[in-house]
Amino acid sequence: MANQLYTVEKVTKMIKQGRILLLAGDEYQLDQLPDGKWVGGTIPYFMTKDGGTFTQELIYVNDITDQITDFEIKHYDSKNIHHIVEQSFDNGFSILILPGLTDVWSKYALESPGWENIYINPVVGWVCGVRYEDFGEIKPKTYAGNKSFTNQAVVMHAKLPNDKVARVEIINVYEQGNGDEIYFEEKGFGNNECLIKGKRHNLYQYLKENNIDETLPLVANYSGANINVGSIWEKNKKRADLFAPVFPDTAYKVAKPRDFDYAREFQSHISKEQSRTKIVFSCNCLFNYVNFGLEGTNIADVSGPVTFGEIAYHVVNQTFVYLVIE
Protein backbone atom coordinates (compact mmCIF):
# COMPACT_ATOMS: atom_id res chain seq x y z
CA MET A 1 0.00 0.00 0.00
CA ALA A 2 1.38 3.38 -0.98
CA ASN A 3 2.11 6.04 1.62
CA GLN A 4 -0.51 8.63 0.76
CA LEU A 5 -3.76 10.35 1.78
CA TYR A 6 -6.88 8.24 2.32
CA THR A 7 -10.46 8.72 3.47
CA VAL A 8 -11.54 7.72 6.98
CA GLU A 9 -13.40 4.76 5.50
CA LYS A 10 -10.31 3.38 3.76
CA VAL A 11 -8.09 3.92 6.81
CA THR A 12 -10.67 2.17 8.99
CA LYS A 13 -10.57 -0.79 6.62
CA MET A 14 -6.76 -0.96 6.85
CA ILE A 15 -6.91 -0.87 10.64
CA LYS A 16 -9.47 -3.69 10.74
CA GLN A 17 -7.20 -5.71 8.43
CA GLY A 18 -4.52 -5.50 11.12
CA ARG A 19 -2.14 -3.22 9.21
CA ILE A 20 0.56 -1.46 11.25
CA LEU A 21 0.15 2.25 10.51
CA LEU A 22 1.57 5.69 11.21
CA LEU A 23 -1.21 8.25 10.73
CA ALA A 24 -1.43 12.03 10.47
CA GLY A 25 -4.54 14.13 9.99
CA ASP A 26 -7.10 16.47 11.46
CA GLU A 27 -8.44 15.70 14.94
CA TYR A 28 -12.01 15.21 13.69
CA GLN A 29 -10.92 12.50 11.25
CA LEU A 30 -8.53 10.68 13.61
CA ASP A 31 -11.17 10.62 16.36
CA GLN A 32 -13.40 8.51 14.11
CA LEU A 33 -10.91 5.66 13.76
CA PRO A 34 -11.19 2.36 15.66
CA ASP A 35 -8.54 0.99 17.98
CA GLY A 36 -5.78 -0.98 16.35
CA LYS A 37 -2.11 -1.19 15.46
CA TRP A 38 -1.53 2.50 14.85
CA VAL A 39 -0.11 5.68 16.25
CA GLY A 40 -0.88 9.16 15.01
CA GLY A 41 -0.76 12.89 15.47
CA THR A 42 -2.74 15.90 14.32
CA ILE A 43 -1.61 17.95 11.33
CA PRO A 44 -3.47 19.21 8.22
CA TYR A 45 -0.43 19.85 5.96
CA PHE A 46 1.22 17.23 3.78
CA MET A 47 3.72 16.58 1.02
CA THR A 48 2.26 14.19 -1.56
CA LYS A 49 3.14 12.92 -5.03
CA ASP A 50 0.76 15.61 -6.29
CA GLY A 51 2.52 18.35 -4.34
CA GLY A 52 2.06 20.15 -1.05
CA THR A 53 -1.50 19.78 0.22
CA PHE A 54 -3.67 21.24 2.98
CA THR A 55 -6.61 19.03 3.91
CA GLN A 56 -8.74 18.48 7.00
CA GLU A 57 -10.75 15.71 5.33
CA LEU A 58 -8.12 13.06 4.51
CA ILE A 59 -5.63 11.09 6.63
CA TYR A 60 -2.03 10.46 5.65
CA VAL A 61 -1.01 6.81 6.00
CA ASN A 62 2.46 5.32 6.40
CA ASP A 63 1.98 1.54 6.23
CA ILE A 64 5.03 -0.22 7.74
CA THR A 65 3.43 -3.67 8.13
CA ASP A 66 5.73 -5.41 5.66
CA GLN A 67 8.88 -3.69 6.90
CA ILE A 68 8.96 -4.95 10.49
CA THR A 69 8.63 -8.20 12.45
CA ASP A 70 7.21 -6.86 15.74
CA PHE A 71 6.15 -3.62 17.39
CA GLU A 72 5.10 -2.11 20.68
CA ILE A 73 3.13 1.08 21.27
CA LYS A 74 3.93 3.25 24.30
CA HIS A 75 2.94 6.68 25.51
CA TYR A 76 5.04 8.91 27.74
CA ASP A 77 4.72 12.10 29.72
CA SER A 78 7.50 14.51 30.69
CA LYS A 79 8.39 12.41 33.74
CA ASN A 80 9.12 9.15 31.90
CA ILE A 81 9.92 10.12 28.29
CA HIS A 82 13.58 9.20 28.95
CA HIS A 83 12.54 5.52 28.99
CA ILE A 84 12.06 5.66 25.21
CA VAL A 85 15.65 4.49 24.68
CA GLU A 86 15.70 1.47 27.00
CA GLN A 87 12.31 0.20 25.81
CA SER A 88 13.23 0.00 22.12
CA PHE A 89 14.06 -3.29 20.39
CA ASP A 90 17.68 -4.43 20.03
CA ASN A 91 17.49 -3.93 16.26
CA GLY A 92 14.85 -1.55 14.99
CA PHE A 93 13.67 2.03 15.16
CA SER A 94 11.23 4.17 17.13
CA ILE A 95 8.60 6.47 15.64
CA LEU A 96 8.04 9.33 18.08
CA ILE A 97 5.20 11.86 17.88
CA LEU A 98 5.35 14.83 20.25
CA PRO A 99 2.51 17.32 20.87
CA GLY A 100 3.84 20.82 20.18
CA LEU A 101 4.36 23.38 22.96
CA THR A 102 3.91 20.90 25.82
CA ASP A 103 6.07 19.81 28.75
CA VAL A 104 6.92 16.47 27.14
CA TRP A 105 7.94 18.20 23.89
CA SER A 106 10.18 20.59 25.80
CA LYS A 107 11.67 17.84 27.99
CA TYR A 108 12.53 15.65 25.02
CA ALA A 109 13.96 18.51 22.97
CA LEU A 110 16.15 19.82 25.79
CA GLU A 111 17.25 16.60 27.49
CA SER A 112 17.49 13.88 24.82
CA PRO A 113 20.96 14.93 23.55
CA GLY A 114 22.38 13.86 26.90
CA TRP A 115 20.62 10.49 27.22
CA GLU A 116 22.76 7.37 27.27
CA ASN A 117 22.39 5.12 24.19
CA ILE A 118 20.15 7.60 22.36
CA TYR A 119 21.99 6.78 19.12
CA ILE A 120 21.75 2.97 19.34
CA ASN A 121 18.56 2.81 17.25
CA PRO A 122 17.08 5.57 15.08
CA VAL A 123 14.44 7.75 16.69
CA VAL A 124 12.44 9.54 14.02
CA GLY A 125 9.10 11.31 13.89
CA TRP A 126 7.41 14.68 14.12
CA VAL A 127 5.96 17.38 16.33
CA CYS A 128 2.23 17.43 15.69
CA GLY A 129 0.18 20.58 15.41
CA VAL A 130 -3.01 22.07 13.99
CA ARG A 131 -3.96 24.55 11.30
CA TYR A 132 -1.51 27.42 11.61
CA GLU A 133 -4.29 29.95 12.26
CA ASP A 134 -5.54 27.79 15.15
CA PHE A 135 -2.15 27.25 16.78
CA GLY A 136 -2.37 28.30 20.42
CA GLU A 137 -6.18 28.05 20.34
CA ILE A 138 -6.57 24.32 19.64
CA LYS A 139 -4.25 21.79 21.28
CA PRO A 140 -2.39 19.26 19.11
CA LYS A 141 -3.22 15.62 19.87
CA THR A 142 -1.30 12.37 19.75
CA TYR A 143 -2.87 8.93 19.38
CA ALA A 144 -1.98 5.44 20.58
CA GLY A 145 -4.68 3.59 18.70
CA ASN A 146 -7.96 5.33 19.53
CA LYS A 147 -6.62 6.69 22.83
CA SER A 148 -5.74 10.37 22.39
CA PHE A 149 -3.62 12.76 24.44
CA THR A 150 -2.85 16.46 24.50
CA ASN A 151 0.11 16.22 26.89
CA GLN A 152 1.78 12.89 26.12
CA ALA A 153 4.14 11.62 23.45
CA VAL A 154 3.29 8.41 21.62
CA VAL A 155 5.89 5.99 20.31
CA MET A 156 5.83 2.95 18.09
CA HIS A 157 8.90 0.84 18.79
CA ALA A 158 9.46 -1.31 15.71
CA LYS A 159 11.59 -4.45 15.37
CA LEU A 160 13.47 -5.25 12.17
CA PRO A 161 14.58 -8.58 10.69
CA ASN A 162 18.15 -9.49 11.64
CA ASP A 163 19.40 -8.81 8.11
CA LYS A 164 17.99 -5.25 8.03
CA VAL A 165 19.06 -2.00 9.64
CA ALA A 166 17.36 1.39 9.88
CA ARG A 167 19.03 4.71 9.13
CA VAL A 168 17.72 8.24 9.71
CA GLU A 169 18.97 11.17 7.66
CA ILE A 170 18.21 14.87 7.24
CA ILE A 171 18.23 17.29 4.34
CA ASN A 172 18.85 20.87 5.33
CA VAL A 173 19.06 23.36 2.49
CA TYR A 174 20.23 26.09 4.87
CA GLU A 175 23.79 26.82 5.93
CA GLN A 176 25.41 29.42 8.14
CA GLY A 177 25.71 32.91 6.76
CA ASN A 178 28.64 35.28 7.21
CA GLY A 179 27.16 37.31 10.05
CA ASP A 180 27.93 37.49 13.75
CA GLU A 181 28.24 34.46 15.98
CA ILE A 182 25.33 34.33 18.42
CA TYR A 183 25.63 32.51 21.74
CA PHE A 184 23.11 31.66 24.45
CA GLU A 185 23.97 31.20 28.13
CA GLU A 186 21.14 28.76 28.85
CA LYS A 187 19.51 25.95 26.90
CA GLY A 188 15.88 26.49 26.04
CA PHE A 189 13.29 27.87 23.62
CA GLY A 190 12.46 31.27 25.06
CA ASN A 191 15.94 32.71 25.05
CA ASN A 192 15.71 36.27 23.85
CA GLU A 193 18.87 37.37 25.60
CA CYS A 194 21.99 36.37 23.71
CA LEU A 195 25.69 37.17 23.55
CA ILE A 196 27.21 38.73 20.43
CA LYS A 197 30.87 39.75 20.48
CA GLY A 198 30.80 39.39 24.25
CA LYS A 199 27.91 41.83 24.72
CA ARG A 200 24.34 41.02 25.73
CA HIS A 201 21.60 41.67 23.17
CA ASN A 202 17.89 41.10 22.86
CA LEU A 203 17.68 38.55 20.05
CA TYR A 204 14.57 40.08 18.48
CA GLN A 205 15.99 43.60 18.57
CA TYR A 206 19.29 42.41 17.09
CA LEU A 207 17.57 40.62 14.20
CA LYS A 208 15.26 43.54 13.53
CA GLU A 209 17.94 46.23 13.72
CA ASN A 210 20.11 44.28 11.29
CA ASN A 211 17.25 43.87 8.80
CA ILE A 212 17.33 40.08 9.05
CA ASP A 213 14.68 38.19 7.06
CA GLU A 214 12.49 36.69 9.80
CA THR A 215 12.00 33.50 7.78
CA LEU A 216 15.71 32.66 8.04
CA PRO A 217 16.65 30.26 10.85
CA LEU A 218 19.62 30.41 13.13
CA VAL A 219 22.06 27.67 12.10
CA ALA A 220 24.58 25.80 14.25
CA ASN A 221 27.30 23.63 12.74
CA TYR A 222 27.77 20.36 14.61
CA SER A 223 30.86 18.68 13.13
CA GLY A 224 29.70 19.48 9.61
CA ALA A 225 25.98 18.95 10.16
CA ASN A 226 23.92 22.14 9.91
CA ILE A 227 21.10 22.22 12.48
CA ASN A 228 18.42 24.92 12.28
CA VAL A 229 16.52 26.85 14.91
CA GLY A 230 13.49 28.57 13.38
CA SER A 231 11.55 31.33 15.09
CA ILE A 232 8.29 33.22 14.95
CA TRP A 233 8.55 36.90 15.71
CA GLU A 234 6.12 38.25 18.29
CA LYS A 235 6.38 41.87 17.18
CA ASN A 236 4.02 43.21 19.86
CA LYS A 237 6.06 41.52 22.59
CA LYS A 238 9.38 42.19 20.82
CA ARG A 239 10.32 38.52 21.02
CA ALA A 240 11.63 35.88 18.63
CA ASP A 241 10.07 32.64 19.93
CA LEU A 242 12.18 29.61 19.03
CA PHE A 243 10.74 26.34 17.69
CA ALA A 244 13.82 24.23 18.43
CA PRO A 245 16.11 24.47 21.45
CA VAL A 246 19.38 26.38 21.64
CA PHE A 247 22.32 25.23 23.74
CA PRO A 248 25.17 27.01 25.55
CA ASP A 249 28.71 27.01 24.13
CA THR A 250 27.29 26.62 20.61
CA ALA A 251 27.83 29.25 17.94
CA TYR A 252 24.71 30.16 15.94
CA LYS A 253 24.61 32.31 12.84
CA VAL A 254 21.71 33.57 10.76
CA ALA A 255 21.35 31.40 7.64
CA LYS A 256 22.39 32.55 4.21
CA PRO A 257 19.54 34.25 2.31
CA ARG A 258 17.03 32.07 0.43
CA ASP A 259 18.29 32.90 -3.08
CA PHE A 260 17.77 29.38 -4.44
CA ASP A 261 14.99 27.18 -5.81
CA TYR A 262 13.96 24.84 -2.98
CA ALA A 263 12.63 22.06 -5.21
CA ARG A 264 15.80 22.01 -7.32
CA GLU A 265 18.10 22.19 -4.30
CA PHE A 266 16.12 19.46 -2.56
CA GLN A 267 16.24 17.23 -5.65
CA SER A 268 20.02 17.48 -5.77
CA HIS A 269 20.20 16.12 -2.22
CA ILE A 270 17.57 13.36 -2.42
CA SER A 271 18.16 11.89 -5.89
CA LYS A 272 21.11 9.71 -4.86
CA GLU A 273 19.16 8.27 -1.94
CA GLN A 274 16.12 7.49 -4.06
CA SER A 275 18.24 5.69 -6.66
CA ARG A 276 19.59 3.13 -4.20
CA THR A 277 17.02 2.64 -1.44
CA LYS A 278 13.40 3.17 -0.42
CA ILE A 279 12.33 5.91 1.94
CA VAL A 280 10.02 4.33 4.52
CA PHE A 281 9.02 7.49 6.40
CA SER A 282 9.61 11.20 5.87
CA CYS A 283 8.39 14.57 7.10
CA ASN A 284 9.10 18.19 6.26
CA CYS A 285 8.74 21.43 8.18
CA LEU A 286 5.82 23.84 7.97
CA PHE A 287 8.35 26.69 7.78
CA ASN A 288 9.69 25.19 4.53
CA TYR A 289 6.16 24.59 3.24
CA VAL A 290 5.21 28.26 3.76
CA ASN A 291 8.50 30.03 3.07
CA PHE A 292 9.18 28.21 -0.19
CA GLY A 293 5.56 28.13 -1.38
CA LEU A 294 5.36 24.33 -1.57
CA GLU A 295 1.56 24.05 -1.72
CA GLY A 296 0.82 22.38 -5.05
CA THR A 297 4.54 21.83 -5.71
CA ASN A 298 5.89 18.31 -6.13
CA ILE A 299 9.39 17.90 -4.70
CA ALA A 300 11.11 14.73 -5.85
CA ASP A 301 8.05 12.48 -5.37
CA VAL A 302 8.46 12.41 -1.58
CA SER A 303 5.48 12.31 0.76
CA GLY A 304 4.67 12.66 4.43
CA PRO A 305 3.31 15.06 7.05
CA VAL A 306 4.38 18.70 7.13
CA THR A 307 5.05 19.44 10.77
CA PHE A 308 5.75 21.91 13.57
CA GLY A 309 9.11 20.26 14.16
CA GLU A 310 10.91 17.15 13.00
CA ILE A 311 12.61 14.42 15.00
CA ALA A 312 15.92 12.93 13.89
CA TYR A 313 17.05 11.54 17.25
CA HIS A 314 16.43 15.09 18.54
CA VAL A 315 13.99 17.87 17.71
CA VAL A 316 15.10 19.78 14.62
CA ASN A 317 13.49 22.53 12.59
CA GLN A 318 13.13 23.69 8.99
CA THR A 319 14.50 20.30 7.98
CA PHE A 320 13.44 17.33 5.87
CA VAL A 321 13.81 14.10 7.87
CA TYR A 322 13.61 10.60 6.43
CA LEU A 323 14.04 6.97 7.45
CA VAL A 324 15.34 4.17 5.25
CA ILE A 325 15.65 0.44 5.89
CA GLU A 326 18.48 -1.37 4.16
Topology readout:
Blueprint: E1 4-6, H1 8-16, E2 21-25, H2 27-30, E3 38-42, E4 45-48, E5 51-54, E6 59-63, E7 70-76, E8 92-99, H3 103-111, E9 123-128, E10 142-144, E11 147-149, E12 153-159, E13 166-171, E14 193-196, E15 199-202, H4 203-209, E16 218-222, E17 225-229, E18 231-234, E19 239-242, E20 252-254, H5 262-276, E21 279-285, H6 286-291, E22 304-307, E23 310-312, E24 314-316, E25 320-325
Parallel strand pairs: 2-3, 8-9, 21-22
Antiparallel strand pairs: 1-6, 2-6, 3-10, 4-5, 4-22, 7-12, 8-12, 9-23, 10-11, 13-25, 14-15, 16-17, 16-20, 18-19, 21-25, 23-24
Task: Explain this structure.
The protein contains 6 helices and 25 strands. It is an alpha+beta fold and 326 residues long. It has 2 domains: 4-170 and 263-325, no CATH class; 193-254, no CATH class. The strands form 6 sheets. A 6-stranded mixed beta sheet has the order 1-6-2-3-10-11. Strand 14 and strand 15 form a beta hairpin. The radius of gyration is 19 Å and the shape is globular. The chain starts with a strand and ends with a strand. The model has no long low-confidence stretch (mean pLDDT 90).
Task: Give a brief rundown of this model.
The chain is α+β, with helices and mostly antiparallel strands. The chain has helices at residues 8-16, 27-30, 103-111, 203-209, 262-276, 286-291; strands at 4-6, 21-25, 38-42, 45-48, 51-54, 59-63, 70-76, 92-99, 123-128, 142-144, 147-149, 153-159, 166-171, 193-196, 199-202, 218-222, 225-229, 231-234, 239-242, 252-254, 279-285, 304-307, 310-312, 314-316, 320-325.
